[in-house]
Amino acid sequence: MLEDPRRRHRARQIVEVVEGLLRAAILFRRIEDLYRRDRLHFEDLRRFVDDRGESVLFNLKEQCHNLFRRKGLYQVSEKEEFFDLAVGSIFHEGMKVREDLYQLQVYRPRFLALEHKEAQNQEPLSPTERDYLRQFKNILERANRGLREGLKEIRLLLADSLQQLRDLLRDHAPNDLLSRFLLEHEALVARVYGNGGLRMLLAGMFEGGLFEACRLAGRSYSESSYYTLAAKAYRRALTLRPSDKETRLLYILHRGLGHFYASHYTGALSAFRQALRIVGSAPLPPLFARVRECCLLMLRERRGERIAQGAQRVIAQLDALQAAPPVSLPRPEPSSLTSLPS
Description:
Strand content: under 5%
Number of helices: 13
């Protein structure tokens, strides 16, 4: 796993870039749909692109610049430089589209009103005013053409960037937060890459594809003490390889730990006993040290004779196989999960 705080921060930033591009692609599809139906308004671009730091594209552009332009601790690859260039180009094309749309939405109605008055001879115009009208007409025609061509250019750049993203994901496959993000946001991935998009991306990242990603995410959740989420990841991996004994063991252990921190001690003890049956003999995996500490805590809390006897039996089985090394008392499972926990 990535332990250095600076590397962990960079790992989070990579995830934010991935999410930003996916959300930008979805927003742009809506913008194109509104344009085709002649219902696109300036306000519809607010979430997509702006110059105040409140839009997806602005933040994505800034994140890419911070990650892929600053030399120093990390070596920036040529792929990352091209990705940064593509994102920057999308942003600037978006700003031009924004300006063109503003002109069409704000100035075109006023121009059409003046043109109508002239056609109806309601208010005779001076030669200078007629010249202004001709200039305004040219400006609006350029804006209309620029809007159409700008949207096309953004569509092509986004398609290229989404292709480049697959290479970027492959290079950053060891980043466990990426696997966690992609698994948690499978629906978002599907909206961009279509059904099966998650498997396609993960197949490019890992030799073992979805199975390997689930295992990596499970280990990451476990190290962050998110045992219920770890169990969920291992359970999904197990559906892909039901005969994998190690994955089954990890699933059951984390399911038991999740039950324990939810104060469901009966379910925890049942899972711990099942895990011991799978192991069978020493040496025990390191996670059993945490199991032993959980059982000791059950004894201390005096939750009833049945729970106490069950905890004692698990401890006795562990001691009979191989005494687990002493570890610090288990930390309580966090009550809530942020989008990108450490």
